[in-house]
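Q: How would the structure tokens look for this protein?
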Amino acid sequence: MASIFTKIVNGEIPAYKVAEDDRFYAFLDVNPIKAGHTLVIPKQEVDYLFSLDADTYTGLWAFAKRVSAAVERAVPCKRIGVAVIGLEVAHAHIHLVPLDNIGDLDFGAARVKLTKDEFVSLAKEIASHFE
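A: Here is the predicted structure in token form.
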């Protein structure tokens, strides 16, 4: 069965897309720990990040770097934090999270609630900075 992320890539489930190319896709986490929390995935469905072939693995990180630059320009923050957990969805993905302090990368903390309009606006703003 296809993962929820594959369904997003295939357009079966809506997402707040911020960037895409022929191999990778980035979209806002709908349950963010900070506004601007973005997920970066390969379009190819592979469960575990370290199971990706070398070209896809390095390409994913290069794509994530470009996405992180767009997030950083769109969302006021000191840095973009990176996390790879891989337990919640069986599809390799990278979390990019705007940070102002070390505690901002706490996946156990209360989640930020955004309205649909706020998600749409934020996704457009990040996408406008993607190069």
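The longest strand covers residues 94-99.

The chain has one domain: 4-129.

Upvote if useful.
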